[in-house]
Amino acid sequence: MKLDFHGIKFNIWLYFMLFAAGLLALVGGAQLLLIKPYYRSNKISAIKEVAATIQEYVIDNQWLDEATIKKASQFAINNNVCAVVYNDSGNVVYNSDSLGDSCIFNQTITVGSTQLQPLTNGKAMRELLLLSDGELSEVLANQRSDQEMILYGKMVQANLANFYLFVNSPLEPLDSTLTIFQDQFFFLAFFALILSIVISLFISTKLSRPIVQMKHSANELAKGHYDIHFEGSYFSEIDQLADTLNDATHKLSKVDELRRDLIANVSHDIKTPLTMIKAYAEMIHDISGDIPAKRDEHLDVIVREVDYLDHLVTDMAELSKMQSGSYQLKVGTFNLSQKIQNIVTLCQVMIDEHHYQLVIECPRNLMMTADEVKISQVIYNFLSNAFKHTPDGKKITIRAFEKNDWIQVEVEDEGEGIKKEDLPYIWDRYYKIDKKYQRATGGSTGLGLAIVKAILDSHHAEYAVESEEGKGSRFWFRIRRSAEWKIKI
User: Fold this and answer.
1) What GO CC terms are in its UniProt record (predicted)?
2) How many domains does the chain have?
3) How far is residue 28's CA from residue 200's CA, in Å, rounded to a whole number?
4) At what angle do helices 236-283 and 292-324 cross, to 10 degrees?
5) CATH of the domain at 126
6) Largest alpha-carbon pair distance within the chain?
């Protein structure tokens, strides 16, 4: 398989490897470059602790006896140091030598530009401390062994006098130690890099596998295979992404299905009246042209079909205009109670014909601020929809009431109901629950609920349908009582 240098798997692996290599380089550099300063710093800290203990034994102790001196000397031997204490006159009051000839107190030393012999020139040593504000720390070269030595000194005030304590300790040569560390580091670094390659390859594969699988699934989805399923993984974000994509796939499949239905149904809606018009025009031309009764009958059919086409084009144009944002609402305050009564009056013939039990539950003079014509269209569509799906003699209820700062309108029927899986799609144009499309009758074009949705969206209204199969449906919407909502389509 060709290596993709821009692929997520390679880049995750590369970032892990760069991180591992950078970490090893940082540790190696710190080990090689900082070990000497670190060792010296720790050595000086250790000598300061040794000096503090010798001070406790020799200077701070008011009763300096042979046993205490012996303890101090043994402590100096145990810590591989030599020590000397001077008084204000430069005389040696204590000397412990565990290094023999290597002790720099037995040699001529150079501190700065001053050259002196510590044991025979105590005053000069005292002056060194005084010039260094009472504390001195120097790294000197042993003239006899050419080994680096640490000289530490401090001025101590105790027992109503000043004392000058110096401690000398060798610095161990680090060259051999550094060589061992380098060999060890390169050995460990080699195996660390091998381990990093394996681990980073495993992690990059684990991280990238679900994303790569999703990419392949997305490619199939792009080809129109809506039955594809996006698999999740151990990671919650990937699971959430998979769920989102699966939901989007389901919705895309519905959209594609609706698109096919739309094309088929619009074609059917247009083709049927055109076929009827053509057929009856030919009949008038060939048969009934000279027979007034037949001719008028055939012309009525043509006019009816032309009216249907006109309604279809008008509804589609209105829906398109509202959804495009170019329609301006004509907002005003009107009597909703009276408007509902007027709509019911228009439908009285159908109510009487099918013996519907129509109930109106609405307070008198309920005022609403909205587009009166469009809200009337919404209520009429809800009522018309109830007529289509309610058996003869059943009950249909229209309610309107105030609820907090909202005015809510409901149309409830005892009809056939809607399946739960179909509820999210009933607002789509031409969506048919039974999938067996038949041209709408009674002047309807099949776009009613799609137009209702566009009108209510333009009013920033809340709306929904609640239905149980076999028991009926309840369509409702609510609009804010005031006109503070923005009029924007």
Assistant:
1) plasma membrane
2) 3
3) 21
4) 160
5) 3.30.450.20
6) 153
- List, for residues 275-303, the tens digit of each pLDDT value: 777 777 777 766 666 677 777 777 777 77
19 vs 17: CA distance, rounded Å: 5
pTM: 0.43
The residue type of 74 is Q
Q: How far apart are CA 425 and CA 453, in angstroms?
A: 11
344 is a domain residue: yes
Residue 23 to residue 119: CA distance in whole angstroms: 50
Distance CA 361, CA 403 (A): 14
CA distance linking residue 128 with residue 112, whole number of Å:
10
Task: Clarify whether residues 383 and 303 are in a common domain.
Answer: no
CA-nearest of 311, 432, 456 to 378 is 456
Instruction: Write out the two tokens for 159.
Output: 């027992």
Angle in degrees, 0-180, between the axes of helices 292-324 and 448-458, rounded to the nearest 10:
30
Between 239 and 32, residue with greater pLDDT: 239
Shared domain for 155 and 274, answered yes or no, is: no
SS3 state of residue 465: strand
Residues 6+ apart with CB under 8 A from 283: 298
